[in-house]
């Protein structure tokens, strides 16, 4: 058997020396092996494995395998392996030397390969093992799998190469170069290595992200705008637009060199802020500050600051406490496995004493002195915003549904809340006669003398009419809402006052969460006015895997058929005279139309609507990612997100999209929002108003105003023209046109006819596109001499397959990511282009490549050059 295996490996090497200086070895053909195959563990998706198989191990003893290789030329070889980094601890060795653990910090493209799609420990990923100095001749490389669950492990393949190589699924070194000429419609792979920050790059927006962060003083909320305080003092200011991503430090994941690369990469792509979420989890171990982790975060904050990138803190999410916290209802909280800590999530919103404890922790973090900046965080203007609490609201199903249901969950908290409500009712009404006059017939033990009064759940508080045991008791529902809102707003106020008392001068945010019923939305929003800026989160797309990508159902819809809905329905939460931001959002893969979302966020939300901040969720790498990065529903490191950021950031920072006047001003008194009636619906503000003009909400009373929407809304032809005249949303054709004088764009389904914009005519043959024209000299597009064209269409992983109508993902595929080329005939207005040059994913013009410009100024972009950036000069 040993001779046979050696013969097989020799034959294999004959075919795996796939490129000069490279050796590719398949894992399933070892020279020696003690690996034990197991039917369950070995049931994997072979279509995503190199050669259609792997060498797996699942048994009581560790598994080992070795491979004989022949080095034709001595030299330094980069060593990569595609193996399972989950559960066991893989090791490797060269020529019988000592075993060395595989460094998991280099894991890339990890994906679930379980044949049944279940989430267990059948994974595959590339790891960069390092550099090997190899002499000419024969060598042995071996792998060892031990630990975890049944010593499970597996090896798909490994690579030794002296050539530049970016692992991408099963693509071998040089495969892209050997692919030959590309056709106009050929999808092409994304092969982005680490950026060298070539000064020739035309997408480099770092000049617009001024360093260091904080040089203009603290960020301040002034009316509904964000402004730097130094600019306020001089009287010469423009509103600040925050355009960023969630980007945790993840202590131990990256070296400092990698984090520096990451900061430079984010700045280049136009990010001026990152959100740390949640900060507490990244700087603690078992609920206590971990000095090593805190130092890692301190350094990351300082490095971002050095590169001009501000930080936003989302401090807590599932704050957990130990028995030493001295909390009287500690035993009422759920306990996690393997820990004495208990989880406060959900019930936090109903527990003022917990709020006070956690606020003290927040103040400790804010007053911590960062040794890498020499400043306490409260004194550092690079800390732009602080959010008290992530995604918690008393009005959401968790906790209100459980607290109102009885004593099954958090019984002591529920009892206390019922007692507090009874005391609140006693103080408000004094007598049962007064209570009856307000609530009507008293039911279910309602009385001002009751020790406890029942709460109402989101189901009871239905906007179409109060349901359940208290059906018809509208005023009672209003009082439940008022009681809960006053409690929640008081919690927010306690935290706000504590942060200000500690010296924080930046922008404060309460939380980003929603209510569980329509009746709770306005009371919930009112509680958020205790801080400076309103924030919301929302997601769209995705599919079967919810947080990941799996075969099965796809949420296939496009925003373009539903103006103002999906993520952008959050526009109804904008508060008059307060800044508004969305600190988490994404249109997630495998939704095929996700490229629409970032332009809509920039052009409509931050542009037309005047929102003040956007953080895409979430960024994690040092470069554009591999395939659908991490098989996650939340990934910024793709052409559809960060790849469009240079064009979008330029338009935002330069003010290329005009803010609209208010089209719908919704004004309420607090009595109205606590009436128990669904006043938000009575205003009948159509979601489509998002595409026309600004929508605001206020709680100081006054007349609600809605403009004559018919002036801008052609319901027959299904088009919405912005009040500024610059944007047209054609939801019949499923497309948006940006027609401003500078940045111009076609987003969605272009259709067969020529599209005439003020600065360019485009005839597009691709089904669904984002085609953005950016005048890099900030001139009107018709006059610009230097133009960036960002041209993106659909993407998918290699081997990914949808059903005929796109409603199901039949195969997930594997990296590399394939990009559909935009095929279009273009012609600029004004002087014809002198040159059109395709650029690589880093925005660097490709040497020796150019697009022919016809005598009439028309030129074609397509898949021939495997590019989605083009530089135009004239």
Describe the structure.
The protein is α+β, with helices and mostly antiparallel strands and 874 residues long. 20% of the residues lie in helices and 25% in strands. The chain has 15 helices and 49 strands. The N terminus is likely disordered.
> Mind telling me the C-alpha Rg?
29 Å
State the distance separating the first and last CA atoms. Answer: 68 Å
Integer average pLDDT: 94
* CA-based shape: globular
Please state how the strands of the largest beta sheet are arranged side by side.
33-34-35-36-37-40-41-49-47
How many separate helices?
15
Q: How many beta-strand runs? A: 49
Largest sheet: 9 strands, antiparallel
Task: Jot down its keywords.
9-stranded antiparallel β-sheet, 8-stranded parallel β-sheet, about 850 residues, alpha+beta
Question: What does the secondary structure layout of this molecule look like, with pairings?
Answer:
Layout: H1 2-16, E1 22-26, E2 32-33, E3 55-57, E4 63-71, E5 75-83, E6 91-94, E7 100-101, E8 108-112, E9 123-134, E10 137-145, E11 153-161, E12 188-189, E13 219-222, E14 225-228, H2 229-234, E15 242-246, H3 256-268, E16 273-276, H4 279-282, E17 284-285, E18 288-289, H5 291-306, E19 310-314, E20 320-321, E21 342-343, H6 352-366, E22 369-370, E23 375-376, E24 383-387, H7 397-405, H8 411-429, H9 432-439, H10 474-502, E25 507-509, H11 518-527, E26 534-541, E27 552-553, E28 580-588, H12 597-608, E29 613-616, H13 645-653, E30 662-667, H14 670-673, H15 679-682, E31 694-698, E32 705-706, E33 713-714, E34 719-721, E35 727-730, E36 735-738, E37 744-748, E38 755-756, E39 760-764, E40 769-775, E41 786-792, E42 795-798, E43 801-802, E44 808-811, E45 814-819, E46 824-828, E47 835-839, E48 859-861, E49 869-873
Parallel strand pairs: 15-16, 15-29, 16-19, 19-24, 24-25, 26-28, 28-29, 30-31
Antiparallel strand pairs: 1-11, 2-4, 3-11, 4-10, 5-9, 5-11, 6-7, 6-10, 8-9, 12-45, 13-14, 17-18, 20-21, 22-23, 27-44, 30-32, 33-34, 34-35, 35-36, 36-37, 37-40, 38-39, 39-46, 40-41, 41-49, 42-45, 43-44, 46-48, 47-49
Helix pairs in contact: 3-5, 6-10, 10-11, 12-13
């Amino acid at each position: 058997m040993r001779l046979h295996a050696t013969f097989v490996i020799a034959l294999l090497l004959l075919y795996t020396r796939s490129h000069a200086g490279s050796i590719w070895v398949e894992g399933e053909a070892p020279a020696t092996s003690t690996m034990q195959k197991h039917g369950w563990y070995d049931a994997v998706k072979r279509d995503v494995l190199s050669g259609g198989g792997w060498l797996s191990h699942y048994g009581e003893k560790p598994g080992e395998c070795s491979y004989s290789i022949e080095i034709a030329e001595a030299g330094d070889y980069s060593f990569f392996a595609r193996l399972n980094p989950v559960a066991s601890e893989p090791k490797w060795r060269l020529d019988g030397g000592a075993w060395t653990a595989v460094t998991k910090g280099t894991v890339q493209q990890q994906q679930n390969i379980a044949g049944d799609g279940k989430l267990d420990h059948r994974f595959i990923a590339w790891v960069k093992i390092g550099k090997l100095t190899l002499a000419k001749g024969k060598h042995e490389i071996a792998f060892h799998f031990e630990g975890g669950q049944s010593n499970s492990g597996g090896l798909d393949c490994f690579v030794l190469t002296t050539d530049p190589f970016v692992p991408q699924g099963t693509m071998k070194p040089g495969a892209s170069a050997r692919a030959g000429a590309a056709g106009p419609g050929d999808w092409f792979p994304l092969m982005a290595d680490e950026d060298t920050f070539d000064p020739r790059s035309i997408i480099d927006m770092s000049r617009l992200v001024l360093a260091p962060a904080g040089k203009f003083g603290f960020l301040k909320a002034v009316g509904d705008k964000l402004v730097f305080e130094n600019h306020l003092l001089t009287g010469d200011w423009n509103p600040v637009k925050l355009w960023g991503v969630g980007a945790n430090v993840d202590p131990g994941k990256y070296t400092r060199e990698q984090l520096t690369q990451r900061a430079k990469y984010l700045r280049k792509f136009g990010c001026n802020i990152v959100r740390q979420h949640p900060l507490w989890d990244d700087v603690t171990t078992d609920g206590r500050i971990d000095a090593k982790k805190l130092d890692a975060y301190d350094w990351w904050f300082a490095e971002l600051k050095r590169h001009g990138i501000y930080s936003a803190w989302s401090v807590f999410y599932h704050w957990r406490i130990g028995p030493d916290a001295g909390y009287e209802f500690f035993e009422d909280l759920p306990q996690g496995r393997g820990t004495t800590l208990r989880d406060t999530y959900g019930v936090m919103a109903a527990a003022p004493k917990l709020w006070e404890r956690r606020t003290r922790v927040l103040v400790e973090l804010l007053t911590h002195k960062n040794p890498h900046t020499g400043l306490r965080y409260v004194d550092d203007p690079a800390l732009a915003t602080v959010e008290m609490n992530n995604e918690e609201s008393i009005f959401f199903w968790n906790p209100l549904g459980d607290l109102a249901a009885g004593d099954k969950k958090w019984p002591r908290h529920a009892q206390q809340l019922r007692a507090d409500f009874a005391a609140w009712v006693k103080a408000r009404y004094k007598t049962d006669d007064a209570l009856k006059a307000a609530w009507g017939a008293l039911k279910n033990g309602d009385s001002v003398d009751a020790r406890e009064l029942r709460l109402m759940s989101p189901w009871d508080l239905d906007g179409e009419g109060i349901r359940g045991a208290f059906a018809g008791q509208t005023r009672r529902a209003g009082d439940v809402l008022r009681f809960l809102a006053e409690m929640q707003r008081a919690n927010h106020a306690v935290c706000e006052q504590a942060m200000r008392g500690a010296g924080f001068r930046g922008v404060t945010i309460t939380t980003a969460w929603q209510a569980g019923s329509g009746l709770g939305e306005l009371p919930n929003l009112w509680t958020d006015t205790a801080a400076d800026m309103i924030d919301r989160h929302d997601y769209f797309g995705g599919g079967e895997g919810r947080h990941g990508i799996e075969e099965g159902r796809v949420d296939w819809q496009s925003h373009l058929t539903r103006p103002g809905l999906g993520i952008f329905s959050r526009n109804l939460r904008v508060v008059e005279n307060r800044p508004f931001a969305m600190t988490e959002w994404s249109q997630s893969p495998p939704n095929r139309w996700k490229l629409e979302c970032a332009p809509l966020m920039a052009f409509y939300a931050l542009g037309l609507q005047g929102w003040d901040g956007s953080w895409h969720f979430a960024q994690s790498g040092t470069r554009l990612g591999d395939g659908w990065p991490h098989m996650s529903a939340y990934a910024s490191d793709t052409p559809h997100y960060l790849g469009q950021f240079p064009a979008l950031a330029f338009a935002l920072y330069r003010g290329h999209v005009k803010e609209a006047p208010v089209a719908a001003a919704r004004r309420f008194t607090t009595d109205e929002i606590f009436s128990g009636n669904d006043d938000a619906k009575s205003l009948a503000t159509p979601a489509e108003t998002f595409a026309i003009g600004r929508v605001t909400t206020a709680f100081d009373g006054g007349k609600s105003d809605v403009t004559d929407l018919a002036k801008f809304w052609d319901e027959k032809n299904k088009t919405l023209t912005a009040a500024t005249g610059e944007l047209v949303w054609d939801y019949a054709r499923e497309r948006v046109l940006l027609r401003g004088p500078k940045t111009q764009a076609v987003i969605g389904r272009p259709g067969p006819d020529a599209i005439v914009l003020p600065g360019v005519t485009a005839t597009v043959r691709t089904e669904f596109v984002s085609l953005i024209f950016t005048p890099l000299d900030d001139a009107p597009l018709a006059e610009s001499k230097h133009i960036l064209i960002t041209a993106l269409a659909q993407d998918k992983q290699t081997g990914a397959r949808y059903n005929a109508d796109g409603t199901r993902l039949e195969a997930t595929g594997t990296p590399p990511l394939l990009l559909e080329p935009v095929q279009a005939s273009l012609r600029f207005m004004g002087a014809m282009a002198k040159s059109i040059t395709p650029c690589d994913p880093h925005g660097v013009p490709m040497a020796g490549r150019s697009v022919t410009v016809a005598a009439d100024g028309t030129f074609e972009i397509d898949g021939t050059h495997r590019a989605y950036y083009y530089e135009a000069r004239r």
